[in-house]
């Protein structure tokens, strides 16, 4: 190389340097790629072991959590644009409120809320006229015995059969559906609809929603205490709040029509065709004060009984209620209510005669 001219020696040296630099760069790239592959395999292995071996490891949409405390961090949002009823995105549960009824009720509520549940017959004798009662837990008799409901006491005060179709959690829509399915076969002369001014809510809907949310989370690997589906379960509590804020309040006019006005119109038309007397028992739930149905009662000639005013109820506590914790009527209040109803029925019959 010493015999070569200086220019050629410099060119050869540069070429040799570039070649060595290029080979060094390629070696570094190979090492980086190898490191990335090893790291990726390590992460994948850790995820597999954590999910399979660890009994409290959960994997939701790409984020791994160490225990069930994530249930308290779940966030519910309304999203009418998603193409599925519910989608889990990390800690966010996106819900399309228009598709709630695509879910099933939890098994424990299917029979309890069934429209076909057999009614309770009080003092039933063939050949007598029938009174059919529809309502929620106040009519069903939550917190009292079979022979302590206003249906029972009414059957003892009036010479008619009393058929109680009340089911806890029902609203006006479900009550009218149950009347048509189970009550009209008794050819009633009188229908008593116990209306509660929280009837804008639909119990079937929010329990379907709760079931859908819990099932979706479980499918993603997270069991948010599914066996305990009551208000103490944080996901259940959040779902109930979501139902009220995102579905009821933001769609109030639509919910009033669907759950109250349309069913009452059906009852009005039915009573006109069949010549049935209708008595509306107005029950103000402690959280609510207004009755949005009084205009319909005038239109169809419903007989109004405002329970709170007629029974002079000022404070919802014992002896009016079962207990401080249970706001349902005590046996004593059921008896007073039966006296009030029987008096209204007798007075109405005397006016007719």
Layout of helices and strands:
Blueprint: H1 6-53, E1 58-60, E2 63-65, E3 75-78, E4 86-89, E5 92-95, H2 107-110, E6 120-122, E7 130-134, H3 137-140, H4 150-157, E8 161-164, H5 172-183, E9 190-196, H6 203-219, H7 234-248, H8 252-274, E10 277-283, H9 294-300, E11 303-306, H10 307-310, H11 331-352
Parallel strand pairs: 3-5, 7-8, 7-9, 9-10, 10-11
Antiparallel strand pairs: 1-2, 4-5, 6-8
Helix pairs in contact: 4-11, 5-8, 6-7, 8-9
The helix/strand class is alpha/beta
Tell me the radius of gyration: 34 Å
Mean pLDDT: 83
Order of helices and strands: HEEEEEHEEHHEHEHHHEHEHH
- Give the tally of structural domains: 3
Q: Give the name of the CATH architecture of the largest domain.
A: 3-Layer(aba) Sandwich
pLDDT below 50 for ≥5 consecutive residues: which ranges? 48-59, 61-67
Binned strand content: 5-15%
